[in-house]
Specification:
Elements: E1 4-7, E2 10-13, H1 24-28, E3 31-39, E4 42-43, H2 46-59, H3 68-81, E5 87-94, E6 111-117, H4 124-129, E7 131-135, H5 156-168, E8 172-176, E9 182-185, E10 189-194, E11 197-200, H6 211-222, E12 227-229, H7 234-239, E13 242-247, E14 251-258, E15 261-262, H8 270-283
Parallel strand pairs: 7-8, 7-14, 11-12
Antiparallel strand pairs: 1-2, 1-6, 3-4, 3-5, 5-6, 8-9, 10-11, 10-13, 13-14, 14-15
Length: 286
């Protein structure tokens, strides 16, 4: 059986799961989404993901035509029909079909679809060896232009930075904000470690409040690893002992080189290893 996709309340074959060319999500990037994980048949941090989805929608004045409970049930329905207990979920809400022109009032009703599928952002060996990254020349969106805290369908800012990473032959690009401080990667939050302590940029530094990011902060607190949210400068990247990225898709990815410079001794560090292990046990309920 073909993979099934949930589209506005109905399950349809992947090949027939389509949106209109007049959908404002396609035409203007007008919509929001969530990247979610299922582990052992359970949605990981379902309430946090739903809250962020509805917050993003509220920020762009988009009314989601389903309750959080209905969307949660729809995710389980879609995963179950596809016989997936460990998978990645993409939940998307667009402004819907409308006339040409950016006015949201021209759209009659939002469109919602849910994809459950397997995902592999990085090869397994990179989690063991770490990845190289660069600092992008593409500046993160100004919070008063399009707030990075909105998980919107407009990802062109991130896409351009990711293209720089690809051109440089590395796995990811770290983006700076309008003040020149570190914000996050193109699809992941960033953490650094130095002298046994972990730190990560503040929400006001132009980052998405990552669900996995919050888990890592909680794990640090539980394991008595000093953790701070603070302003992070480019200089901090270059002198850090350890570095890693976090996200629903990437989970916890070690970084061992930044702009051609080794991070610490150029190998995955002890704090990163501890947190990777703790995270994998946490998502399995161990």
């Amino acid at each position: 059986m073909s993979l099934q996709v949930w589209v506005d309340g109905k399950l349809v074959d992947k090949e027939r799961a389509t949106v209109s060319v007049y959908d404002h999500g396609l035409l203007y990037g007008d919509g929001v989404f969530e990247g979610i994980r299922l582990y052992a048949g359970k949605i990981f941090r379902a309430e946090e993901h739903m809250r962020r989805l509805y917050d993003s929608a509220k920020a762009i004045r988009l009314v989601i035509p389903y309750t959080a409970e209905q969307l949660t049930a729809a995710i389980y329905e879609t995963a179950n029909v596809n016989k997936l207990s460990d998978c990645y979920v993409r939940l998307v809400v667009t402004r819907g079909v409308g006339a040409l022109g950016i006015d949201p009032a021209k759209c009659k009703a939002p469109a919602v679809f849910i994809i459950t599928d397997l995902i592999s952002i990085y090869p397994k060996e990179q989690y063991e060896q770490g990845v190289p990254v660069i600092v992008s020349s593409i500046v993160r969106n100004h919070p008063n232009a399009l707030s990075p805290r909105i998980k919107s369908l407009n990802y062109l800012n991130n896409v351009l930075a990711r293209m720089e990473a690809t051109d440089a032959g590395v796995a990811e690009a770290i983006m700076l904000n309008h003040l020149g401080n570190v914000s996050e990667g193109t699809v992941a939050n960033i953490f650094l470690a130095r002298d046994g302590a972990v730190f990560t940029p503040l929400l006001c530094d132009g980052i998405l409040e990552g669900v996995t990011r919050n888990v890592i902060i909680e794990l640090c607190q539980q394991m008595d690893i000093p953790i701070r949210e603070r302003v992070v400068e480019r200089h901090d990247l270059y002198i850090s002992d350890e570095c890693f990225l976090t996200g629903s898709g990437a989970e916890v990815m070690p970084v061992t080189k930044i702009d051609g410079r080794p991070v610490g001794n150029g190998k995955v560090g002890p704090i990163t290893k501890k947190l990777m292990d703790a995270f994998h046990k946490h998502v399995r309920g161990a």
